[in-house]
Inverse folding.
């Protein structure tokens, strides 16, 4: 059973600058780095909902990427600022999906999706703890 | 118009060993590296059909990845040998698709597809030169 | 002739968070990433003195690393915040040296030095343009 | 007490091809990748003396890099073949040093040294097991 998540609550934006080493001889960001950018944006998404990696470990779970899709629209270059808009889109008992739109100065650079599966330390599938599932339904924590 | 390529001719296998730095704190290969493995396998696929990067440059073209999909089936670990079976599957006037099956000792680790587009030095779409298109229809060169 | 630079003027601090993919199976940051951190800190150091990569290109120069030394003191882990204190230390007609101290919550993680050489688009040594040399003697630009 | 090792016994050569993603916008191998090349060569050096990563784990030890130095002599480019000549040079009760010469078609590309320290799973210094120390004194196993 798939639970569709509310995009208004489940969206955050993460900004990063392209590193020199992330470019290749074509002078643009090498495509594999976009998975790294999505990952960094996901970590930030969780931080903005009060989740640190330590809390993951306390639950004894990991959330590896089990499927991903990337569509490259425009090359990005060294030192450009990229905004990764990350949305948790779908939740099941053992998986969560995220969608990403990566923009550079309002131009779409890359669209991506990832499906993550909840696994234990033995890398076997494990039901998402209720507290973790609840995070994916949550908006950013507003700091006052 | 999409031309389906003959998988028997258009398949090659590339073997690589997982590097230490390609693992992450879960003790397994970090997922972004599979795009690197596909790329290395693609370069090998071309070598086996007599194509070096220099010949690309002489044509004034590049073949960046414009779309990719990865499905992870099983974790791979440091120092394991991976066999990447790479098949050119579809050709159009400006794109070529590759499919990959990455195995470790006969267990499927990852399935992937990439679509590459032919671009010039200005990164704009460009018709695949006939000689390059012909390479994608070719079997491995047999060295006698 | 080596010109020693004033460390008070020539020092900046750059903060970054360790990415998941930068760890290895030992659960700590893989050592090669510290060169990436130094590079990111150097780019930030230049930004804080008004230099963008575009200005480099206008001068027709690059500043590749020609020598580096790293001493690792303590492991850093995923999601930890690292402060890279970067100091331009010595200037010659064609090279500039930087020293780095990377700390995590006041504990020294890594000490590094890099020597960069000024080269043209042909990768041959080239005298540092006077305007570029002046940047290495400069303090951070204070934004009011 | 430092034990100098016999370079004739303690040297092996590892060949690798530069990957596309290892280049940067200057069109050459990004300098951080040379630490990756040294690491791959070190793993190969150990393989050639009968050591697999599994045996390390059985001893409950790791050998992280605690110090390194790199001098870059010449740029290497995509798809070039590099030969990494690796020599174990010095042994103490807790450390081992390696020296590397990386060549491309007989031209010296990079010289490097690394010092590795023996640590346990807790990352604390640990005396090198006698069987491991003996490996560093050993020549390649000749397969007949």
């Amino acid at each position: 059973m798939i639970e569709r998540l509310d995009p208004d609550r489940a969206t955050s934006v993460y900004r990063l600058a392209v590193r020199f080493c992330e470019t290749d001889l074509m002078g643009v960001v090498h495509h594999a780095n976009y998975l790294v950018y999505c990952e960094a944006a996901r970590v930030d998404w969780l931080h903005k909902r009060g989740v640190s990696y330590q809390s993951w470990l306390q639950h004894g779970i990991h959330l590896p990427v089990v499927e991903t899709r990337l569509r490259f629209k425009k090359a990005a270059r060294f030192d450009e600022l990229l905004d990764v808009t990350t949305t948790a889109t779908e939740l099941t008992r053992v998986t969560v999906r995220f969608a990403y739109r990566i923009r550079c100065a309002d131009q779409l650079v890359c669209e991506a999706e990832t499906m993550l599966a909840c696994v234990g330390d033995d890398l076997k599938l494990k039901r998402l703890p209720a507290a973790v599932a609840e995070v994916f339904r949550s908006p950013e924590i507003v700091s006052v």
In short: The helical segments of chain C are 33-47, 53-59, 130-136. The first helix of chain C runs from residue 33 to 47. DSSP finds three helices and six strands in chain C. The interface with chain B takes residues 20-21, 23-25, 27-28, 30, 32, 77-78 of chain C (CB under 8 Å).
